[in-house]
Design goal:
Blueprint: H1 4-28, H2 32-44, H3 48-57, H4 60-70, H5 90-93, H6 98-112, E1 117-126, H7 127-141, E2 145-150, H8 157-171, E3 175-181, H9 192-198, E4 203-206, E5 226-229, E6 233-237, E7 258-263, H10 267-282, E8 299-306, H11 314-324, E9 329-333, H12 341-352, E10 356-362, H13 368-375, H14 378-382, E11 387-391, E12 400-403, E13 407-411, H15 417-422, E14 425-431, H16 433-448, E15 451-453, H17 455-459, H18 463-474
Parallel strand pairs: 2-3, 3-4, 9-10, 10-11
Antiparallel strand pairs: 1-7, 1-8, 2-5, 5-6, 6-7, 8-14, 9-12, 11-15, 12-13, 13-14
InterPro entries: Cardiolipin_synthase, CLS_N, PLD-like_dom, PLipase_D/transphosphatidylase
Membrane topology: Multi-pass membrane protein
Domain PLD phosphodiesterase: 218-245, 397-419
Length: 479
């Protein structure tokens, strides 16, 4: 009896902890269903419920990203730029698009805080066989600076060719900076950063693992693929650097993908995106680029830098926004497809109002758990008229969105929570009918070689397969 007061105090603290946790969930959980679930859990399971909430229910990804930003550690949210020259031509050049895209243009301007820029030339590069020679030639031709960022930069034969070209650029006095993701570089051995150091190429790793400092993060990865040369020429898309993207003559098929060579003012936005990441990783502030009025082509473009340092899922807002203004067709190609309810609604509502929505996915994925989870979503799209196709091997890593006949979006982001919420991505949106037509031709060729998925096929999966896929779906927010 002497210690009864300690037991009473213990239970009082547990109840207080549960109430405090429920109060936090009530105030900060955006989804009311999630808020109610966590409130009930915190109050109904004293001690354990609150611990589960603080471990699993708090979005530490966005908290850390915002904390770094507010602490002046790079990755700033962009502010709108005042642009003369090429940028001033945008209202006139976009006049023919405004009837369809006016609502989306207002949204994108507010969300991206970057202007659309005229006068860009876009060249489509197929697989590493087309992309790597063009990128290496740009490195060899560089006069002032080379900024390269890649999630995976392998140390195989392809990677070593890039290392040697970068080392030659350093020797002739070009300013070179290379940024590799600390997790992505673990895909090969020796690590590419050690090879670059050995050749005196300045290199930094994005969020290296450590017990102190910024900690151990399997999320918050830099998934961007950027190469910017002399501020006027850029390369971006979905392709990493390594032998796996060499498809022609590959004994095991390789990994198909698209990359893009961009000449024109928007290369400056690509450069700015790299500089933000470099400042975060190293503390070194590279000089910002001036927006040039030199034109190289007809495409109107904007770079989209997205990551968990924002208050909202920027790419998700833009995707749902552009799907809402689609009138004729939507073509999507992605290697990983795990949509949330908002994206599912946007796709289904487009199909129901008569838009031809087509989704092209790999029949075999390099990530089985993601593929199984993806299959559990398909019936909800098929029943409302979305057309879905399985692409045969080799694995296609392309990320592509086409809306009607003028708008294209390409880049590093997949349609899954990791890209849309957890990682740092760079996409490029393009207003240009000629580019859209070339990409639509590629999409059609891939679709014609693919197999259409039917609702009967998805519903007819054996029960064990359905259970496996549904179990994988439970982990969708973390895949």
């Amino acid at each position: 009896m002497a210690y009864a007061w300690l037991e009473d105090l213990f239970w009082l603290l547990l109840v207080g902890y549960g109430v405090l946790t429920a109060w936090h969930a009530l105030l900060y959980k955006r989804d009311p269903r999630a808020a109610l679930g966590w409130i009930v859990t915190a109050l109904a399971i004293p001690g354990i419920g609150p611990v589960l909430y603080w471990l699993l229910g708090v979005n530490r990804i966005r908290t850390r990203g915002r904390g770094w930003q507010e602490g002046g550690q790079g990755l700033p949210m962009r502010v709108a730029q005042q642009v003369d020259g090429a940028g001033a031509m945008v209202p006139t050049a976009l006049a023919s698009y405004r009837e369809c895209y006016a609502p989306y243009l207002d949204l994108a301007e507010a969300v991206t805080r970057r202007p659309l820029l005229c006068g860009n030339d876009i060249e489509i590069l197929f697989n590493g066989d087309g992309a790597y020679p063009a990128m290496l030639q740009a490195v060899e031709d560089a006069h002032r600076h080379i900024y390269l960022s890649s999630y995976i930069f392998e140390s195989n034969a392809t990677g070593r060719r890039f290392v040697e070209a970068l080392a030659r650029a350093v020797k002739r006095g070009v300013e070179v900076r290379v940024l590799v993701d600390a997790l992505g570089e673990c895909y090969s051995w020796p690590r590419i950063s050690s090879l670059l150091h050995r050749h005196n190429v300045p290199v930094a790793r994005f969020l290296p693992f450590s017990l102190g400092g910024r900690g151990m993060h399997f999320n918050l990865r830099n998934h961007r693929k950027l190469l910017v040369v002399d501020g006027r020429l850029g390369f971006t898309g979905g392709m990493n650097i390594g032998d796996r993207h060499l498809v022609a003559g590959a004994s095991v098929g390789g990994v198909k993908d698209l990359h893009f060579r961009i000449a024109g003012p928007v290369a400056g936005q690509m450069r700015d995106a790299f500089c933000e990441d470099w400042a975060f990783a190293t503390g070194e502030r590279l000089s910002p680029s001036a927006v040039s009025d030199d034109t190289a082509g007809q495409a109107i473009c904007r770079g989209i830098s997205a990551g968990p340092n924002e208050d909202f899922e920027k790419l998700h807002w833009l995707l749902t926004g552009v799907l809402a203004v689609a009138r004729q067709r939507v073509c999507i190609m992605t290697p990983y497809f795990i949509p949330d309810r908002g994206l599912m609604t946007a796709l289904n509502s487009a199909a129901l109002r008569g838009v031809e929505v087509e989704l092209l996915l790999p029949e075999r994925s390099n990530l089985p758990l993601v593929h199984w989870a993806s299959r559990s979503y398909l019936w909800e799209l098929l029943q409302y008229g979305v057309r879905i196709y399985w692409q045969p091997p080799p694995f296609d890593h392309t990320k592509l969105l086409l809306v009607d006949h003028q708008y294209s979006q390409v880049g590093s982001a997949n349609l899954d929570p990791r890209s849309l919420r957890l990682n740092f991505e760079f996409n490029l949106e393009i207003f240009d009918a000629a580019v859209n037509a070339r990409l639509a031709g590629h999409f059609a060729a891939c679709r014609n070689a693919a197999r259409r998925v039917t609702l009967e096929e998805v519903d007819g999966r054996p029960l064990p397969v359905k259970m496996r896929d549904a179990t994988a779906k439970l982990f969708s927010p973390y895949l």
